[in-house]
From TrEMBL:
<feature type="binding site" description="covalent">
    <location>
        <position position="237"/>
    </location>
    <ligand>
        <name>heme c 2</name>
    </ligand>
</feature>
<feature type="compositionally biased region" description="Acidic residues">
    <location>
        <begin position="29"/>
        <end position="42"/>
    </location>
</feature>
<dbReference type="GO" id="GO:0020037">
    <property type="term" value="F:heme binding"/>
</dbReference>
<feature type="binding site" description="covalent">
    <location>
        <position position="87"/>
    </location>
    <ligand>
        <name>heme c 1</name>
    </ligand>
</feature>
<dbReference type="GO" id="GO:0046872">
    <property type="term" value="F:metal ion binding"/>
</dbReference>
<dbReference type="Pfam" id="PF03150">
    <property type="entry name" value="CCP_MauG"/>
</dbReference>
<feature type="domain" description="Cytochrome c">
    <location>
        <begin position="221"/>
        <end position="374"/>
    </location>
</feature>
<dbReference type="InterPro" id="IPR009056">
    <property type="entry name" value="Cyt_c-like_dom"/>
</dbReference>
<keyword id="KW-0349">Heme</keyword>
<feature type="binding site" description="covalent">
    <location>
        <position position="84"/>
    </location>
    <ligand>
        <name>heme c 1</name>
    </ligand>
</feature>
<keyword id="KW-0732">Signal</keyword>
<dbReference type="InterPro" id="IPR023929">
    <property type="entry name" value="MbnH-like"/>
</dbReference>
<keyword id="KW-0575">Peroxidase</keyword>
<feature type="binding site" description="covalent">
    <location>
        <position position="240"/>
    </location>
    <ligand>
        <name>heme c 2</name>
    </ligand>
</feature>
<dbReference type="InterPro" id="IPR026259">
    <property type="entry name" value="MauG/Cytc_peroxidase"/>
</dbReference>
<dbReference type="GO" id="GO:0009055">
    <property type="term" value="F:electron transfer activity"/>
</dbReference>
<keyword id="KW-0574">Periplasm</keyword>
């Protein structure tokens, strides 16, 4: 488990702003430094770095507003029953409260709907795809993907575009967003506008943020003790959920390299040899390397109290259960249950998921800390809400 060792060498302790490090650990060069430090459209907290924004899709107010309308538009799905917002609800940190969602035509997805809080900073997108670096690439998947079908646009392209091209309100918004375009209503423009909207979904004003900026009264004493435990070498959480965005898989405009973001946390071992259930094998599905079995991206823990159920397959109902699994050093799925096995013994599990003892008070404290990461102003911000009356 050499990657766990590398993780240990890297100091992501506390809320040092850099998840990029400058010490230890191999990584890839990231040269995207096009972020605009002072972009007023982002409304960044002053202690957040600027996200990396591609030169080809700079933020404008008109693109963000078009993206917001498209995000909530059921016309974007072929059968007009579903929008991005059907699986990404603002009050749930843009997750959906389901174990796993159903697409517009009734097909079941195998992955839990991700929250979109601070997706602009994700170094790799989705639960386990080593090849998805940009929101513009990722957003095409729910639109056109066929395995499974989400919005189901493939085969209905002209029909879907015509709905927007024939709607004067949308035409005006496309004109404002893409003033010099020869082809106004196109999927490239739809994707760019959606990506701009998703990039401004920035959250950095939770009670815990106010506490670490100096307001001692912003969180309870219990939550403050929980934070100390979270950042301790006993619990080890911060190695994978550290930095300003509480995720190892973070990059920003000045990131020079990113860590191997994907980790196996010992949720399954269905054959005693480390296997995860079919369709949910982590980046192994791309690399076919045994050591990548069960490796998923550590999600940001911002707004985590409202984004349950948890993990890539939604198989853990509550934060308390998540904590109990880490305390046990992995999950035992009992005989007779689907995918039974002792995840604690998974040979590919990270060395950082080794288990620890927690008193009842400690457990309550860590849960209070995790709950202090809920940013109500983000969950109710009218800039991110469904614009339809
Ligand atoms: C049927 C439900 C569903 C719909 C509709 C849907 N999503 Fe998602 N979304 C998901 C799931 C599930 C994931 C995790 C996918 C995975 O890991 O394979 C996800 C992941 C994402 C991510 C990655 C977040 C991250 O941090 O990596 C983004 C961004 C996203 N969706 C945006 C959108 C947008 C924009 C739309 C509309 C074009 C959309 N989604 C439509 C269910 C949905
Ligand atoms: C070795 C890296 C690692 C360590 C250490 C670690 N995590 Fe995680 N965490 C992950 C990964 C990877 C996932 C996603 C796993 C999956 O879905 O299979 C995850 C998922 C989670 C989730 C669910 C996120 C969601 O959106 O569903 C929570 C909550 C969480 N971790 C909290 C913690 C806490 C608290 C600790 C310390 C006790 C901790 N983690 C330690 C890597 C880690």
């Amino acid at each position: 488990m050499s990657s766990s060792r590398n993780l240990l060498a890297i100091s992501l302790v506390g809320l040092g702003l850099c998840a990029c490090g400058g010490e230890g650990g191999p990584g890839q060069d990231e040269t995207d430094t096009s972020g605009d430090e002072g972009d007023p459209l982002l409304e960044l907290p002053e202690d957040f770095p600027a996200p990396a924004i591609p030169e080809s899709n700079q933020l404008t107010a008109a693109k963000i507003e078009l993206g917001r309308h498209l995000f909530y538009a059921e016309e974007l799905s072929a059968n007009q029953t579903m929008s991005c917002g059907s699986c990404h609800l603002q009050e749930l940190g843009f997750s959906d409260g389901e174990v796993t969602p159903i697409g517009s035509t009734g097909e079941a997805l195998t992955r839990n709907s991700m929250g979109l809080t601070n997706a602009a900073y994700a170094s790799k997108l989705t639960w386990a795809n080593p090849n998805l670096d940009q929101l513009e690439q990722q957003i095409a998947i729910p639109m056109f993907g066929e395995f499974p079908v989400e919005l189901g646009i493939t085969g209905h392209e002209d029909e879907v575009l015509a709905r927007f091209a024939e709607d004067p309100t949308y035409v005006a918004m496309f004109e404002a967003a893409f003033p010099d375009a020869s082809e106004l209503v196109s999927f490239d423009h739809i994707i760019d506008a959606l990506a701009c909207f998703v990039r401004v979904l920035i959250s950095g004003d939770s009670p815990y943020d106010r506490y670490r900026r100096g307001d001692q009264a912003a969180i309870s004493e219990s939550a403050a003790r929980g934070a100390a435990l979270f950042f301790s070498e006993t619990l080890e959480c911060h190695h994978c959920h550290g930095g300003f965005n509480f995720s190892l898989a973070t990059r920003h405009a000045n990131t020079t390299f990113t860590q191997n973001a994907f980790q196996n946390t010992g949720l399954y071992d269905i054959d005693g040899a480390g296997s995860y259930p079919p369709d949910n094998r982590g980046i192994y599905e791309f690399t076919f390397a045994d050591t990548d079995m069960g490796r998923f991206r550590p999600p940001s823990l911002r707004n985590i109290a409202v984004t349950g159920p948890y993990m890539h397959d939604g198989s853990v109902a509550t934060l308390g259960e998540v904590l109990d699994i880490y305390a046990a050093g992995g999950r035992v799925v009992a005989e007779g249950e689907p995918w039974a096995g002792d995840g604690r013994a998974n040979p590919y599990k990270s060395g950082l998921v080794a288990g620890f003892e927690l008193s009842d008070q400690d457990r309550e404290d860590v849960l209070a800390f995790l709950t202090s990461l809920t940013d109500d102003s983000f969950l109710t911000d009218p800039r991110f809400a469904d614009p339809s009356p």
